[in-house]
From TrEMBL:
First and last residue of the signal peptide: 1-21
Gene3D superfamilies in the cross-refs: Zn peptidases
Cofactor(s) it depends on: Zn(2+)
Active site: 652
SMART domains reported in the protein's UniProt record: Zn_pept (SM00631)
Cellular-component GO terms for this entry: extracellular space
Keywords: Carboxypeptidase, Hydrolase, Metalloprotease, Protease, Signal, Zinc
One GO MF term attached to the UniProt entry: metallocarboxypeptidase activity
SUPFAM superfamilies noted in UniProt: Zn-dependent exopeptidases (SSF53187)
Name of the protein in its database record: Zinc carboxypeptidase
Length: 800
């Protein structure tokens, strides 16, 4: 039996990671009403299956990377679970059963909201040890030691890194004092794509410890203070006269755009609607039918016209003429196609599927095209039947089938490009119903508080704000009315072998994999070239009008300096780089100063999210995409950062909810009950306005940064590690040969993944010249690197 590409991906992967042998099953065998001869010639065509979200237990990060490479539809929700991973995957019932048979443990099947297994104390993965590392060689760095209070519990979270981390047997243990009692927890080792990242643990605590000590089984040790993550939830001091809560249900694209137009009409001095130049391909499909129930005798017929433009009116009749020795004949009568099938001397039908296909293509090509089922030779004899073609679309008539104009809401008192721009865009992935509400709620708050809230007026007066409620209106309509798990747009790039209606829920391009930086076409991981994969990158970079619209917007409005790509679910807050190659070499990391700015701005934004109902975006889900999730080749935020220099973040709304009764994290799903979806929209609208506030603060920043080399000028008896202290997040450009530093000079980078800025090891007498640039573009001492100015910083390190 021919299986879909997606199922075959699952079989290959499951076989690889479980090392189990298996026998392919043929559901057609033993089916009632089918003879043995028919079974040998063709198998039953199974109906299109509806997928659900299932939680899989995947052995390790290598297996997870294989899932990503093979284009499985991961939901962004990935958890470390002991030495294994828990991963949410969109899968059909057949795929779920294959997972079970092949040794991948299916923890739970989720619908729209489900409970996760209780988090257990993590243990170290069993793996082959590297050469023995002595305690003297084992150095521990504590990267983060934080406490935070979520909606219903207080947690202690620690990240630590050991120089012996490449060895799986290296174990780290945390100890702290809680209400006078010593507590312990083993840290989990996090390795991604073969690279050791760090160890971490997270546990609920009843009292906040002052410090935590991390010890290694090799003898290393480090102690650090425990500090607060994000800050306390602000209670009892709401903003005076600040109004919010302007959404009360999930909105389809038509409703979103209508709301946008209403706002523009109501606030003409503050709002304009931008019509994107690249129309979508439309919420439309060809009318189709698979005629026949066996693979070798089925004929797939597709209309030449779109379903709504007449394709749905076409009928096809396969007719036994009832006479002996008749030839195959096709007659077209208006929208009715009659196929008189060939017969033998006994009046039995002899026309095969392939013969009927050829006859239809030769004689009815003005109305339809035909092909055998998924590349089958079509040697089976067809049966008499009558079928009406249909595009299978179920949206009401008010939903246009025509190509749509994607709209952006532009908000600002001065919309002439003179003010810094901020972009928020949602619903690249159609099924993420909460995300457009974030943009609409944000627009409403900015406009309806403008007249009486001083802070809002400052934001609108001094910024140029762009909000795209739905990047992907066609896919969103399909998700609302036809197939709720639709991720992509609706464009079918498949050939005839994968274009029968049984594949209708597997067509489309993942718009967040269709961009030109770090794409699958450049060899990066995290997208697929299979047209039926849910991470299909398209036939080429920027092939889709929806992706080109985002590029156009960034090109047209060069004042845009900040962007937020709003997705769901899982509760992440991430930034570039977003992709790596099969050797886990990422796109270039930001400079240490840029990374520091990302973290500093994130702290402000995440505090604002927390203020709504106490939701904490966890420290382990905050940071560059590869450090906290997985590779996403060709994503749009990477395009904005690397090509346009825009500070670009990714929200993943829908953080897990902690159930203090069961002591388990509870997933919320793409389309939670609206009461939960509403809360997510409210808190992430807080966060989007938080980004807007960050942009406003930066627009006022005219103060150059100041820096200091530590140690400074002096004589030393041996090599010296020189670090730099900065007054704010800033990129430092330096030279070590006495020359003038410029933007082409080396810059200070991070010392390692999720580590602080590097130090310069000076082992001979050296003149260090440098200057710093902050995120607002202010240059230290107003130095001009493009001139012959000499007002840069300089120290001389003399090594005796």
């Amino acid at each position: 039996m021919r299986k879909s590409k997606k199922v075959m991906h699952g079989l290959v992967l499951a076989s690889a990671i479980s090392a189990l042998s298996f026998t392919t099953l043929y559901p057609g065998f033993g089916a009632p009403g089918v003879t043995r001869a028919q079974q040998l010639e063709g198998e039953r065509i199974t109906s299109n299956e509806s997928p659900s979200i299932v939680q899989l237990e995947v052995p390790d990060n290598k297996a997870l990377d294989k899932l990503v490479e093979m284009g499985f539809d991961l939901t962004h929700r990935v958890h470390q679970h002991g030495d294994k991973l828990e991963v949410d995957v969109v899968a059909t019932p057949s795929e779920i059963e294959e997972f079970k048979k092949l040794g991948i443990k299916v923890e739970e099947t989720l619908i729209t909201e489900a409970e996760w297994n209780q988090r257990t104390t993590e243990r170290m993965a069993a793996a082959q040890q590297e050469a023995t590392i002595t305690a003297a060689e084992d150095t521990i760095k504590v990267l983060q030691a934080k406490h935070y209070t979520n909606q219903s519990a207080t947690f202690l979270y620690v990240e630590a890194k050991t120089s012996a981390g490449a060895t799986a047997s290296t174990a780290l243990t945390a100890t702290w004092v809680e209400n006078g009692v010593e507590k312990k927890a083993t840290l989990s080792r996090f390795v991604d794509y073969g690279e050791y990242i760090y160890h971490q643990f997270e546990v609920p605590v009843k009292a906040i410890p002052e410090s935590v000590t991390i010890t290694s089984n090799l003898g290393g040790s480090a102690t650090t203070a425990v500090t607060e993550w994000l800050g306390e939830v602000k209670k009892g001091s709401p903003k005076k006269h600040y109004v919010k809560d302007f959404v009360d249900h999930y909105m389809d694209p038509n409703e979103l755009y209508e709301r946008a137009e209403q706002l523009a009409k109501e606030f003409p001095d503050l709002v304009e609607i931008i019509d994107m130049p690249n129309k979508t391909n439309g919420y439309r499909r060809l009318a189709q039918a698979t005629i026949g129930s066996l693979t070798n005798s089925a004929v797939v017929v597709s209309s030449k016209a779109w379903g709504h433009e007449g394709g749905n009116d076409i009928s096809v009749e396969f007719k036994n003429p009832g006479q002996a020795s008749q030839p195959l004949k096709v007659t077209v009568d208006g929208k009715k196609i009659i196929v008189d099938l060939a017969t033998n001397s006994s009046r039995n039908v002899t026309s095969t599927a392939k013969q009927v296909v050829d006859a239809l293509n030769a004689n009815a090509s003005t109305l339809v095209s035909a092909n055998t089922y998924r590349g089958n030779a079509g040697a089976g004899v067809v049966t008499a039947t009558t079928t009406k073609l249909t595009d299978n679309l179920k949206a009401p008539e008010r939903i246009s089938r025509e190509p749509q104009t994607v709209k952006a809401i532009r908000i600002g008192k001065h919309r002439d490009g003179s003010k810094p721009g901020v972009l928020g865009y949602a619903q690249e992935h159609a099924r993420e119903w909460v995300t457009p509400l974030v943009t609409i709620e944000t627009a409403e708050r900015l406009l309806r508080n403008y007249a009486h809230d001083g802070e809002t007026k400052q934001l609108v007066n001094n910024l140029d704000i762009f909000l795209i409620p739905s990047v992907n209106p066609d896919g969103a309509n399909y998700s609302f009315y036809d197939f709720n798990m639709q991720r992509r747009n609706m464009t079918n790039h498949c050939g005839p072998n994968t274009s029968d209606p049984g594949y209708r829920n597997s067509w489309g391009v993942d718009l967040n994999r269709n961009h030109s930086v770090g794409s699958v076409f450049d060899g990066f991981v995290g997208a697929s070239t299979s047209c039926t994969s849910d991470t299909y990158a398209g036939p080429s970079e920027n092939s889709e009008p929806e992706a080109r619209n985002l590029v156009w917007l960034a090109d047209q409005y060069s004042n845009i300096k900040f962007a937020m790509n709003i997705h769901s679910y899982g509760g992440y807050f991430m930034w570039s780089p977003g992709a790596y190659n099969p050797q886990r070499v990422t796109l270039p990391r930001p400079t240490a100063g840029q990374e520091a700015f990302y973290w500093a701005a994130s702290n402000e934004i995440l505090n604002d999210i927390q203020d709504h109902r106490g939701t904490v975006i966890l420290p382990k889900r905050t940071g560059p995409i590869p450090d906290v999730l997985y590779s996403a080749a060709g994503n749009s935020a990477d395009y904005l950062w690397y090509e346009k220099g825009i500070y670009a973040w990714n929200f993943e709304v829908g953080a897990d909810l902690w159930n203090s009764t069961t002591n388990r994290w509870q997933a919320v799903g793409f389309q939670p009950a609206y009461a939960e979806g509403h809360e997510e929209a409210m808190e992430f609208a807080n966060g989007l306005i938080g980004l807007i506030k960050v942009a406003y603060s930066q627009s006022k920043d005219k103060q150059p940064p100041s820096t200091k080399a530590v140690p400074g000028n002096g004589s030393f008896s041996g090599p010296v590690d020189v670090s730099f202290e900065t007054s704010e997040a800033a990129t430092i450009y330096y030279t070590l040969d006495g020359s003038r530093p410029t933007f082409e000079s080396k810059h200070i980078r991070l010392s390692g993944t999720r580590e602080p800025a590097e130090t310069l090891k000076i082992d001979k007498t050296t003149v260090i010249n440098w200057f710093a640039v902050d995120a607002a573009g202010n240059i230290e001492k107003n130095y001009n690197p493009l001139s012959k100015a000499s007002n840069f910083n300089s120290v001389t390190i003399t090594i005796k």
